[in-house]
What we know:
Elements: H1 9-30, E1 42-46, E2 52-53, E3 59-64, E4 68-70, E5 76-78, E6 91-93, E7 96-100, E8 108-118, E9 123-132, H2 151-180, H3 189-218, H4 227-234, H5 237-260, H6 266-280, H7 282-285, H8 295-326, H9 329-362, H10 365-370, H11 372-399, H12 406-432, H13 437-443, E10 452-457, E11 462-468, E12 473-482, E13 493-500, E14 505-509, E15 512-516, E16 519-526, E17 530-539, E18 545-554
Helix pairs in contact: 1-12, 2-3, 2-8, 2-12, 3-4, 3-5, 5-6, 8-9, 8-12, 9-11, 11-12
Amino acid sequence: MTRRLPPLLAPRRLLLLLLALFAAALATLALPAAPASAHAVLASSNPLGNSVLQAAPAEVVLTFSESVRKVPDRIRVIGPDGKRVDQGDARFDGAVVTIPVQQTGAQGTYLVSYRVISADSHPVSGGFTYSVGAPSTTPPSDTDEEIGDNPVVANGLKVARYIGYAGLVLLIGPVLVISLLWPARLSRSGPAGVIWTGMGLVTLATLAGIWLEVPYTTGGGPFDVDGSSLRNVLSSTFGTAYLIRLGLLVAIGLLLRPLLRGETGRVDQILLAVLGGAAIFTWPVAGHPAASPVAAVSVVVDAVHLTSMAVWLGGLVMLIGFLLRQANDRELGAILPIWSRWAALAVCALVLAGTVQALIEVGTPDALVSTTYGRLIIAKVVLFGAVVAVAAYSRKLVRERLGEGGPRRLRRAVGVELGITAVVLGLTAVLVQTTPARTASANEDLGGPGFYSATLDSNLFKLQVDVDPARKGNNSVHLYAYDKANKPLPVVEWTGTAALPANDVAPVDIPLLPLTDNHATGEITLPLEGDWQLKFTVRISEIDQATVTATVPVS
């Protein structure tokens, strides 16, 4: 005999589920839209911030911690009189941005402001000053625009991502259940409504994400969207991934129509699975995983994480919304054991993928507790542990074949699972907008107290030497060559060594890579504390070269 819920029970449970989803949406807004949603940071600059130069530089060089791309008209150099002195477009070469500067001869303080996009699509903005001759008051900008993130846009992106995750839940899990577990005698109209709702939510979230990414990139308000900025976003990795997702959604929608009428074949189901898998990958490709140290692993792991989440939660929606109300004892006896195994596999995949993600994105135990990203991970794990406990209780009921009162207890357990996981989805939406813990922790050290910078003179050139962080372990070295008039000087060949005479450490080569004509960089490990002697030989022609030495205190 087919069991039915009391008439008011289903609406009541639906109301509770909607309240849980609303609470999760509020959670995405309650957590701060941290200005450090960015991934990259400014690692060094030439001139240095707050430095005083004898002559105006011909260019300003910004070096970031990772590759960045341009935001049109958002890199500016303002002279002491408040007018722009940057000329032409800034040159982008990976993590290095070079800004040509007019030689006006004006003495005083200059303001450099920038806004660029990091590899994971998040904006990076900031500014600093340098002075020529002597400091003066900080110049006023020639624009009233603020460099920063609009809170409406930042929170809107969180909500859009949450809507997208909710859409995945209502799409992937229900499609899997109706394809492989749905009893032939039951109507498909109810599940079809859920699936089309999921399609609509994913499509809405994708379109909203593209729209909001424009002002998020430029720093404007939610309606500050023009054709040029939109084209700039659509030509990025983020925009390409979202456009591909929209195309795949159209193809998936065409295949869903016969499936929901019960007319699809095995080939169509396989094609639907392939298209769905391809669409899932557009999420990690447009976010943090694509910019991780092991991007290929992170993208695959994140795709597995999303798929497992959508299968598990979407299946629960089908159980509580339809099967537990409409299927009879014989049908449930066949469906529930299979679903229980699927849910167990999905949970295992979630745990494994989440662990790998945490190891990559958190990096160290200290970063787990000292960063916003790490604390969100802890909150997510605690809530996920509660969900797993409830899921284990549900699985126990299924193994016991439900028993007297079992269906009602199972429905309650599934409802609790959905309520808690709705909040987990909210935390996930916030995590996507938060700087990964490993990056936030590492960025705290950039330009910190151990940062070394000096300008060394020779008879042929001036060489600015930057060593970051000037501490025991791995260090980045940046070299900038200038002539006696402080203009960039093209270099033919760079060589460098590092030695620690006090500890009888013989000179070792510093591998140097030219980034521009007058800028080279290298990485070296300094294994001991002490005063390291860094020697650099710079050749500027076939016969002209000179060597300079920097004594770098390493702590």
